[in-house]
Amino acid sequence: MSADTVYDCIVIGAGVQGSFTAYHLAKKNKKTLLLEQFVLPHSRGSSHGQTRVIRKAYDQEFYAHMLDECYKLWAQIEKEAGVRLYRQTGLLVMGPENSRYYELVKNTLQKNKVPMVALTRENFSKHIPLVNLDEGHGAVVEIPAGILYADRAVKTAQGQFQKLGGVIRDNAMVTDIKPGPLVTVVTSSGVYRAKSLVITAGPWTNRLLAHTGLELPLEVEKINVCYWKEKVPGSYNIKNRFPCFIQTECQDTKEHIYGLPSNEYPGLMKVCFHAGFETDPDHRDKQKNTSDIDILQRYIARCFPGLDPQPAVVESCLYTLTPDRNFVLDHHPAYSNIVIGAGFSGHGFKFGPIIGKLLSELSLGEVPSYDLSPFKIRRFHEKTKSAL
Ligand SMILES: Cc1cc2nc3c(=O)[nH]c(=O)nc-3n(C[C@H](O)[C@H](O)[C@H](O)COP(=O)(O)OP(=O)(O)OC[C@H]3O[C@@H](n4cnc5c(N)ncnc54)[C@H](O)[C@@H]3O)c2cc1C
Ligand SMILES: O=C(O)[C@@H]1CCCC=N1
Fold first, then answer.
1. What's the confidence (pLDDT) of residue 149?
2. In this structure, what is the dihedral angle of CA atoms 111, 115, 119, 125, given to the nearest 10 degrees?
3. What tens digit of pLDDT does each residue of 233-288 get?
4. Is residue 302 classed as helix, strand or coil in its secondary structure?
5. Of 30, 110, 124, 232, which has the highest C-beta tally within 10 A?
6. Segment 127-184, tens digit of pLDDT
7. What confidence score (pLDDT) does residue 385 get?
């Protein structure tokens, strides 16, 4: 492409959401440029690591609805690229039987006819050995849920995008955005122009939006990603059909604790706390709070007796949280040819292919395939006004 190429669209940020957005735009024959500040692949944002959970067990039904198409889109890109990105493991959901949240999750699964098994206290340990169910808690297994191979998925979306003629420039940090009928994007390695711009910059979103006079209520948190050693290797292994799990709340915390079967590191199971500690994305290593690990240790000692209750490996990742934990998928309030995909609040990976499709639709001025009202920017202002 020559220096004065005008792209149909520039996408800023090559995490899962930007990579799938670029891929969908290229599928629609749009001349698309994907910009990334770091050399790819990297582990400084939110999309790195080997695995993520895919599930329909949500308290809000609109997520379960989007997941129907999402599973199809994951299968489609697997077929196109000839790679495996999803593996069914099932998802064990445990929570207090009298809690509203646990009830809503079960309702979503039932109403959407998701194949599931309700476990009783009597048959729980037969089906799920080496897990202790807390007193007063119920358990259901969402059968089709599973894991996504995260790093491989991001690489696949980028690879398919390039095969369709898309251009990726990594090591290209965006330092300025000049809105207009043609948007100008200034990077550390060149200046680019496009008819539309999609910002999928994860934890750095507000830094980029500052160039456009907008600030969203986003909080960036560092998550301690903990791996725990199996006392007997293989006891919680994916090959032995151990499922992913979510503990919706327990005596130590109202937050989710979740885990994935041992798979990525031999003999280690990933179990994490679904909340972290506020950080600056460029200085997350300075955030050293580990009080979440204390909670995990107590939980593991009580409920996962087959794991050593000392983390064997601790890595880090970033969440970008909105106040209501729903995503932002919207046009910029002042510039309709700038589209924002942000605030994926620690649960956005599974939606990558559908987010990409929706952001591509918004950037092309098409009617989005889903009702995007839960994801609109104006909900933040409405909240502020009604609080006054
Ligand atoms: C520990 C952990 C576990 C999770 N588990 C799950 C799960 O099980 N299931 C699930 O569905 N989701 C899960 N998530 C959430 C999911 O991973 C995120 O929602 C998703 O990765 C967000 O992707 P993103 O593309 O918005 O952000 P990112 O991956 O951070 O991508 C943004 C990109 O923009 C780039 N960028 C930023 N600023 C600039 C700039 N100025 N110029 C150029 N490029 C720039 C960044 O370098 C980055 O590559 C988890 C997240 C974490 C951290
Ligand atoms: O989104 C997911 O499925 C995971 C597991 C539960 C907590 C957050 N991420």
1. 98
2. -150
3. 999 999 999 999 999 999 989 999 999 999 989 999 999 999 999 999 999 999 99
4. helix
5. 30
6. 999 999 999 999 999 999 999 999 999 999 999 999 999 999 999 999 999 999 999 9
7. 41
Torsion 176-10-198-317 (CA) sign: negative
Q: Report how far residue 180's alpha carbon sits from residue 170's, in angstroms, rounded to the nearest whole number.
A: 24
Is ipTM strictly over 0.95?
A: yes
Edge-first strand order for the sheet with 146-149 is 51-54, 146-149, 86-88
**DSSP summary character for residue 319:** E
Per cent of the chain over pLDDT 90 is 96
Closest CA to 334 of 291, 368, 378: 378
Task: Extract the runs of DSSP E, i.e. beta strands, from the chain.
Answer: 6-12, 32-35, 51-54, 86-88, 91-96, 116-119, 137-142, 146-149, 167-169, 174-178, 183-187, 190-199, 219-230, 244-247, 257-260, 268-273, 277-278, 307-321, 328-331, 338-342
CA distance 251 to 198: 42
Coil/strand/helix, residue 175: strand
Closest ligand 2 atom, residue 57 Cα: 3
Looking at CATH, the fold of the domain delimited by 91-143+219-321 is given as D-Amino Acid Oxidase; Chain A, domain 2 (3.30.9)
- Which ligand number lies closest to the CA of residue 292? 1
State the average pLDDT for the chain: 96
- pLDDT at residue 2 tops 80: no
CATH topology for the 6-47+151-217+323-387 domain: FAD/NAD(P)-binding domain (3.50.50)
Per DSSP, the three-state class of 92 is strand
Nearest to 174 by CA among 319, 369, 38, 363: 38
pTM over 0.90: yes
Question: Which residue ranges make up each domain of the chain?
Answer: 6-47+151-217+323-387, 91-143+219-321
Residue with tokens 């709070």: 289
Is 195 a pocket residue for ligand 2 (Cβ < 6 Å)?
A: no
Distance 330 CA to ligand 2 centre (A): 23
- What 3-state class would DSSP assign to 239? helix
**Residue % of the chain over a pLDDT of 70:** 98
